[in-house]
Structures are given as structure tokens and as C-alpha cells.
Amino acid sequence: MLQIQGFVFNFASENTYIIYNENKNAWLIDPGNMNEQETKAISDFIINNGLTIQKILLTHAHIDHVLGLQWAFDTFKVPVIMHQEDQEVLDMLQMSGMRFGFQINPVKVDIKYINEGDLLDLDGEQFKIYHVPGHSPGSVVYHNENQKFMISGDVLFEGSIGRTDLYKGNYDQLIDGIRTKLFILDEETQVFSGHGNPTTIGFEKQYNPFLR
Hints:
Blueprint: E1 3-9, E2 14-20, E3 25-29, H1 36-48, E4 52-57, H2 69-76, E5 80-83, H3 87-91, H4 93-99, E6 111-114, E7 119-122, E8 125-131, E9 140-144, E10 149-153, E11 156-157, E12 160-161, H5 171-182, E13 190-193, E14 199-200, H6 201-207
Parallel strand pairs: 3-4, 4-5, 5-6, 10-13
Antiparallel strand pairs: 1-2, 2-3, 7-8, 8-9, 9-10, 11-12, 13-14
């Protein structure tokens, strides 16, 4: 049985997640920790629960989702999983930091690219990859059908969708991706977003003003 632990980090109230199982194997998703206090919170959870981080997953590479990426890679020394279309976004990290008024170094990590339809396996629990661009060119969703949940990044929120006014954003593309890839899934599927509270596919199909 998979467990999900969320943390709210940095200036954007970004959701960082750890998914782990009874074997204490775990994935770290979107490490957004940006200071010592936030890094200690996530480190303490991993240590106190005896977890082994096997992969670092990115839903996309916007600055608020990768502020702790270099720390995570240096600490756990495991591959960073992301879509190739967001490599350009990750490469712009230093410039993005300047826009927000702080210095951040370019990240130097080992990256493994994933594509639409790929499967990732955590001790027998499979996650299917959906490429849903529009918020960023390489935004992906990690979906576990067995336990009916997904990590959606900034694709879909409770009552909202990701911004499309950022670099290579595309409103029509995002809406189409949500409708054709996510809204066809079980309505009980929980959605763990990159910001805000969890929701469900069924709730968003009925009430999300962007998608009704």
C-alpha cells in the first residue's frame, strides 16, 4: 500500500511529495525546498521513516518545483526523471531566479527522460506517464491506476488549471490534454496537485469552471 506525504514549500506554496511503501522504498517528487528549515523538514521525514529514495521525479521544471533539486540529487544520488520538453525550462533556472530576486546556480544532475505512455514501477506499483503540455512544454502527470491517484503538478488544481501565460504556455493545449487524457480516468481518482488541496477527477469534471 502506497503512502503519500506532502510538504508545502517556498514562496509559491508549492507541494512537494514523497510516495513510499511498506518496504521503505520511496520517490521524491518536485523538491521545492529552498531554505534550511524546509530541507530539514523533508530530511527528517525521510530519516525518521527509514526511507530509501530511489528516484527523483519532476512533473515539470518551473523554478518553484526544482529549488531543492540540486540538494536532492547530491543527497540521494539517484536519477532525475522528467520529460525532455522541459529541459529548456530547467536550463533557464538561473534566469528565472533573477526574475524573483535571488541567486540560484544552474543544476547539474543526471537526467532520465520519460515519454507519454511510459511506465514507472515502485515495487510492483505501476505509474503511467501522461504528457499534458500547456502549463509548460514538458508537463507530465504520474498516474497510479491501482490505488486511483495521480500527481498532477500544475496541470490540474482544485477548481482551476495551471497558468498558460508563462514561457511556451498554451491554454487550448492544456484544456485538450486534461479532457482527453485525465477526464477519461475513474472519477474517484484523487488528484494531488502542485499547489493547493487534493481533489478528484469527478469533482473537477463537475465543478471546475475552466472545464465544465
